[in-house]
Amino acid sequence: MKRTFGITISFAALAVAQSAAAQEADQTAANSGAAQVQDVIVTAQKRSERLQDVPIAVTAITAETIQNRRTLDLVDLSNQAPGLQIKSDDNGANPRIFIRGVGVNDFNPATNSAVGIYADGVYVASPLAQRLAFFDLQQVEVLRGPQGTLYGRNTTGGAINVTGKLPGNEPEADLSAEYGRFNSVNVQGGASVPLIADKLSVRIAGLYQRDDGYTLNRLTGHYGNNTNRWALRGTVHFTPTANVTDNLVVSTGRSTGGSIWAYNRPLLTEPYQSDSFCAPALYGTDQCMTFMGYTNPSKNLYQGDYSFEGKDRVNLLTVSNTLTIDLGAASIVSVTGYQHASRNDQEETDASPIPTITASYIARQNTFSQELRLQSNGHTPLRYVIGAYYAHDYLNNNSAYNVLPLLASDDPAADAAQGIGIFGWPLTQKVDSYAAFGQLDYDVTDKLTLTGGLRYSADRKDFHYVSEAANGLVPIFTYDGAKTFNSFTGKVGVQYRLTPSANIYASYNRGAKSGGFFSGQTGNIADIGPYKDETVNAYEVGAKTDWLNHTLRANISAFYYDYKNLQVYTTVEDGLITRQLFTNASAARIYGGELELQMTPTRGLTVSLNGAYLNATYRDFKSAGNDYSGNTLPSAPKVSVQGAVDWQHETPLGTLVANTSLSFRSKVFFDTSNDARLTDQARAFVDARLGIRVARDRLEIGVWGKNVFNETNISDMTPIPTLGFDVFSVGPPRTYGLYLKARY
After folding, report:
1. pLDDT, tens only, 220-273
2. What is the pLDDT of residues 42-82, one digit of tens each?
3. Which residue from 597, 598, 601, 509 is spatially nearest to 560, judged by alpha carbons?
4. Considering Cα of 107, then 109, then 114, then 117, what sign does the dihedral take?
């Protein structure tokens, strides 16, 4: 830890030295003809500011980068910002997002992420709606660290702002199409039309994606893990007067792909001996089997024997409206949002030809939200944001597991007592959220700025849960509970501008994540909760600098988190089933450092590099008789690195364009136990694109490749040792194809 903060202090000292030699260096760079690193405008503090002026660790991913990296999905953002890891076991829902090791592995619908997702300014409450279709975007901002003041509860890890393109005052259109391996098709485009000059314009954008899938069912010859997705977005930009602006965004879409086809790794010895597990060296041989006698001698993670081929369907409808009234010295901003999400997922959980566990995940969720802010305009010595927030959320879930159907008898009650049969957990949850917040920034001098902020949040949760078996014929228990979860969060910060091109900052943030009720399957009423609020005291220092006439940008940060009651999803063995638990770890500690570099050594060439070091451990965590204290948090690699090179060169035929990117993460644990069996080795992935632009750069054709070196892409491991197997969720292997882009 001392070393990490020492690096930051040393870096700040270098920034001071930069001031003495700034003029000479700037002139040298100017004479070289090098292009400058682009300035980026962000809204991380609810107002438009230069990225380099914001005393927050934030990464801005531009529309051009989104396209060049083929970021088609929220999951594709993984590793594009320091310390950002995103995974999903589902076709169109429930992403698990981790920033600096902070996140939640739980896939159940009532569990809030520790990373808040905001789409066009509206908080996306439902995990069913968070796996957004990434198309026609203007920018994505990844805010690292607790954002409890301006963004509220459920942002102890950070926040991700997703902003769509707005129509302008000139007609324009763009279209991209690509075809690739597994018969993949991706078509997206948009068009803007001004209807009333300087007052009213509209934009319509759409997306269509499909592929055959990349996992082979050896029993049928069919492929699964396929994608079939469409989405539409309409945006109206209205400026009836010079001081009034209104942006209305309506989007809808459907993802109807194959439910995840996992890989089954048998664990028991063959022939079967009670509590006798295979040695790891024998995994993927016919010497290992499941509880039901299935052996899988193949180590190919992209093949399996599936008793049925499930489907996963997610429907989304979102509406947002942002009204801004400019009063001169200040503006009133109203952000209204509505979201509807529904899901029907029929999943073969066991990934074997012998029916062992199948799942039916059925849920729908509706959310209405309203935020009202009064905020200062311009860069005055005193800047402020004051606001209030309200949201109403309704969730209905009707999911079920079918466990060991081949062993079912004529007595459902006896079966249920042994953990055999259909286990359902219909539930409803109503949440009313209230918040009031404010943040002040005061320039003590032209170099020194002090920041202070405070937020009060209250979540009233009403929860109704039924645990049942045999399609309701065998009641297990009914739970009704209600509780209001209150929290104060806030921020104190200081920023000092060393030079026009360098500043340092330090901050303390208090973050909180609302407590709640467990929404997964259980036969034990004590598992429902309620579990407690998660709180974090976060300390951060950093520096943001530009060098050599803005041809080199270097940002660095170091942080220390002290967590209390960290919310944790884990599993325990209970009879013939592996029981899910959602509970609190008494204490956890996270610290680390991050570096972001961007260079333009010559015109047409941009090189970027980001890296993160992370130490994330439970300090005090005992659950269900297990002691996890000292273990590393899941999905928290010690080292992660992402680098990219973007190049373009003009030729008589057109402009050649190319980019390649590398992402690396060190070893990760997928379970709180840190069992070696549930660990993945260090992995590196390479993507690339090569194309040519013609017709005054209005037309581009080329080739692309993702995971070029065909690295195995394990996104998750789920242990089910009571039934003698683990299941692996695996992302796509090497993919490649052709693309065409056109714009008007």
Report:
1. 999 989 999 999 999 999 999 999 999 999 999 999 988 888 999 999 998 766
2. 999 999 999 999 999 999 999 989 988 888 888 889 889 99
3. 509
4. positive
Question: How confident is the model at residue 34, as a pLDDT?
Answer: 61
Per-residue confidence (pLDDT) for residue 26, from 0 to 100: 45
Rounded CA separation 80/87 (Å)? 13
**Which residues, in sequence order, are CB contacts of 134 under 8 Å at separation 6+?**
66, 71, 72, 73, 74, 76, 162
> What is the amino acid identity at position 238?
F
What secondary structure does DSSP assign to 502-517, as a single string? EEEEEEEEEEEE--B-
CA dist., res. 148 & res. 510, Å (int):
7
Strand order in the sheet with 714-720: 263-266, 725-730, 714-720
Contact 170, 195 (CB under 8 A): no
User: What radius of gyration do the chain's Cα atoms show?
Assistant: 26
d(CA 552, CA 193): 38
Q: In which element (H, E) is residue 28 found?
A: helix 22-32
How do strand 683-694 and strand 654-665 relate by DSSP bridges? antiparallel
Q: Which residues of 2-15 are buried (b: 16+ CB within 10 A; e: fewer)?
A: eebbebbeebbeeb
Give Cβ neighbours of residue 526 (< 8 Å, ≥ 6 apart): none
For the chain, the average pLDDT equals 91
Query: Which of 143, 53, 41 has the alpha carbon at shortest distance from 443?
Result: 53
Question: Alpha-carbon distance 594 to 387, whole Å?
Answer: 32
For residue 20, what are its two tokens?
């003495």
Dihedral sign from CA coordinates of 370, 375, 379, 381: negative
For the chain, domains (ranges, CATH) are 2-261+306-743 (2.40.170.20)
Asked if the model's pLDDT at residue 416 lies above 50, the reply is: yes
Q: Which residue has tokens 């080199």?
A: 552
Shortest CA distance to 455 belongs to which of 535, 512, 371, 493? 512
Identify the pLDDT of residue 53: 94
**Token digits of residue 725:** 């197997």
By CB neighbour count within 10 A (0-12 exposed, 13-18 middle, 19+ buried), where does 152 fall? buried
The structure tokens listed for 17 are 């030295």
* DSSP line for 365-431: EEEEEEEEEEEE-SS-SEEEEEEEEEEEEEEEE--EEEE-GGG--S-HHHHHHTT-EEEE--EEEEE
Residues contacting residue 584 through CB under 8 Å, at least 6 positions apart: 531, 532, 534, 565, 566, 567, 568
Q: Is the previous residue joined to 280 through a cis bond, with omega within 30 degrees of 0?
A: no
